[in-house]
Amino acid sequence: xxxxxxxxxxxxxxxxxxxxxxxxxxxxxxxxxxxxxxxxxxxxxxxxxxxxxxxxxxxxxxxxxxxxxxxxxxxxxxxxxxxxxxxxxxxxxxxxxxxxxxxxxxxxxxxxxxxxxxxxxxxxxxxxxxxxxxxxxxxxxxxxxxxxxxxxxx
Length: 154
Hints:
This protein is an alpha+beta fold. 29% of the residues lie in helices and 34% in strands. The protein has two domains: 3-35, no CATH class; 47-150, TATA-Binding Protein. Strands 1, 2, 3, 4, 5, 6 and 7 form a seven-stranded antiparallel beta sheet that branches. Residues 1-37 and 47-53 have low confidence and may be disordered.
């Protein structure tokens, strides 16, 4: 028997909680189904839906997965800032091209671009700045750090 089923049998939930358990189960099934997608489909350089990452106006390729232990978000009513770290199968040059193309669609203006074996891209939009660092981590693998925060208007 699955450990998840054992937990479900042991715990008793208050009335009305079934909807939350059902919703959680549906989300888990969706995540498991996506994890079983063939590698060729996952590695496409297509932006993920906004619901799967924390900065809705910063597109992330589907080939990258969030590294939660290295990521940090601070959010209040007035501000949202942080560092999101992703890793996955992708080449540095392809990722740099992806961000240059897709950030503009979301209103970001490329301010600077430094590329060699790694890449450092800086973007601005009114009141906001974004620095994207792309580092190679192995054969056709990369780590992406996305830093977003407010900037002083000039």
